[in-house]
Structures are given as C-alpha cells and as structure tokens.
Amino acid sequence: MKTPTVRIGTRSSPMALAQAHLVADLLRKERPGLQVELVPVTTEADRWHGDLSALGGKGLFVKQIDVMLQRGEVDLAVHCVKDVPGDTPLPEGLAVAAHLPRDDVRDVLLFPEDSARRTLDDLPHGAVVATSAVRRRAQLQRLRPDLEIVRVRGAVGSRIDKLDGRKPVDTARPDAMVLASSGLARLELTGRACQVFTVGQILPAVGAGALALECRADDADTAGLVARLDHARTTAEVTAERAMLHDLRGHCNSPIAGHCTTTADGRLALRGMVFSADGSTVLDAEATGGTADTPAALGSRVAAALLGRGAREIIEAIPH
C-alpha cells in the first residue's frame, strides 16, 4: 500500500465500533504491520430519536460516512448492508470492494430480564411488542394480529435498557422486543434471545446479517487489500436481494423483505415479500436462478413477479 495506515470511517455506536474492529483485525491479518485507525462519527440519524422516515430514512446512517470517504478523510467504510439505500445508486466515486461472510439473518424475540416468558405464544392478548422496522411490524401482525406494535429507536444496548426498565420509553414499557440475531451476536448478547424466528415466520430484511466494505473506486491499493476479505457467496446473495429492492424502488419505510440462499448445487434461490403496513395484504414471490442467470437478473425476476401482483400500489401507499 502507498500509505502505512488505513482509516476506517464508522458510526460511534457500540455495534458499529465492534464491526469496525472486526474489519481492522482482518486487515491486519492480511497485511501484518498495517496500521489501522478507526474514525468514529455520530451521524444525524444516531442523534435523532423520532421516526427515521421524517428525517430522510435509514440512508442517513451511512451518508455522512460516505461523504467523508469521498473527501478522502477516511479510506474505508463499514456498513450494514440493510442500512444502505436500495433505491438509489452508490454515491459518485465509491464502490463496494467486499462483503464479509454473512451472519445469522434471523430476527429474535427478547423479554424483560425479570420475565418468565420465552415465546411469542406466551404473550397475553394485546401485549406490547417493540420494534423499529415496518417489515417486522407487518409480519408480527400476521402472526399475532392482537398485539400492539410500538416503535423503538436507539442503539441495541439502549433498546434493551428500555425493555428492562432501566431507561424511560415514550409509550408503555414493552412486554417484548424484536431485534436482529446478528446484532446481538456482535455485542456478545446472544443470551438475551429467547425465541429465534424462522425465516418462514419473519422473512429477513434485504442484506440482513451482511457487512459491506466500501472504498473510493480509484483507490486501487485499498480496494485490492479489502477484496481479499470478500466472501463470494455472500456477495452473490446480497447482489440478488438488492437488485430486487432496487427494481421495487423500496424506500426505508417500505415493508419489503428478501432472502437469498445458495442451494446444494450452487444455484441461488431468492424469496421476496411485500406487505401492507398492517400485514393484512401480502405479496410473495420466489425463484431459483438458472445456470446462465446472474444474481442481479434473479433479483430483477423476483421483483417483476411482485410488481405484476401489485407491489407498486402497496409500496406507494406507505409514506416515505
């Protein structure tokens, strides 16, 4: 490399820092002696505690770091793929150089630390469940229409503190909370997960469990080093999912789910779903790629099937 140091731009939340430290360790293994510097930033979205759609969407989690990357203030960004907007191209001059091996994509149910409940079925009629994602809200209401679903924001640790009663909440203290399994694992909090939902119960978000490593497209040194970390299977699966999301023109407030897997014979299988806000209307499509299919072509095929069934009307009915 031309420079002895790689500067990683990252959000300042505990989970983002854990992810950045993971990447730093992997880079040092690839190039012993390499200096890696973390450059934390608190984004506008991190400071905002209201509805993200009112601020401009989840893309604000990555926008500020991308600007730093474009300006040359950092050399590499570590993003959760699910936070990267799917309806717009990457910022000018930036490219994804690698995806790390994907973590668990499933969502999990948590209860207050003093609760004896362990599953969704244990919740009484009308119980309050907290989640930040409209995708989860729609699918939870399919499983249990009687539940009251409330929004919760903040870092994972802060959300759990609200669940346990150690921090105040805007509404009644929730009886349960839904979070991502991968996020708990990165914070070494997997012991808090009581019920792990199957992908059949709650289909994951596009890009769930995957980390994207982004750099400047003209920075061949950094791109070449980072590319050694790429997990080809994850890249192919994420590419199919994001192609579907792009063709659906899904925004941060769209109840869209997508999950791609690799079959035993090496083909990609993608399932996509679009929900109305209350989960009462569900569109479902899936396809397996042929030998000549690219991941993006598979994603476009599933998106076309969903659009043919009325996905555009459902997506546009939900405010950005």
UniProtKB/TrEMBL annotation:
Pathway: Porphyrin-containing compound metabolism; protoporphyrin-IX biosynthesis; coproporphyrinogen-III from 5-aminolevulinate: step 2/4. SUPFAM superfamilies: Periplasmic binding protein-like II, Porphobilinogen deaminase (hydroxymethylbilane synthase), C-terminal domain. One of its GO terms (molecular function) is hydroxymethylbilane synthase activity. GO terms for biological process: heme biosynthetic process. Pfam families: Porphobil_deam (PF01379), Porphobil_deamC (PF03900). Gene3D superfamilies: Periplasmic binding protein-like II, Porphobilinogen deaminase, C-terminal domain. It catalyses: 4 porphobilinogen + H2O = hydroxymethylbilane + 4 NH4(+). Keywords: Porphyrin biosynthesis, Transferase. InterPro entries: HemC, Porphobilin_deaminase_cofac_BS, Porphobilin_deaminase_N, Porphobilinogen_deaminase_C, Porphobilinogen_deaminase_C_sf. Its cofactor is dipyrromethane. Residues 236-307 form the Porphobilinogen deaminase C-terminal domain. NCBIfam families: hemC. Belongs to the HMBS family. Tetrapolymerization of the monopyrrole PBG into the hydroxymethylbilane pre-uroporphyrinogen in several discrete steps. This is Hydroxymethylbilane synthase. The lineage of its organism: Bacteria, Bacillati, Actinomycetota, Actinomycetes, Kitasatosporales.
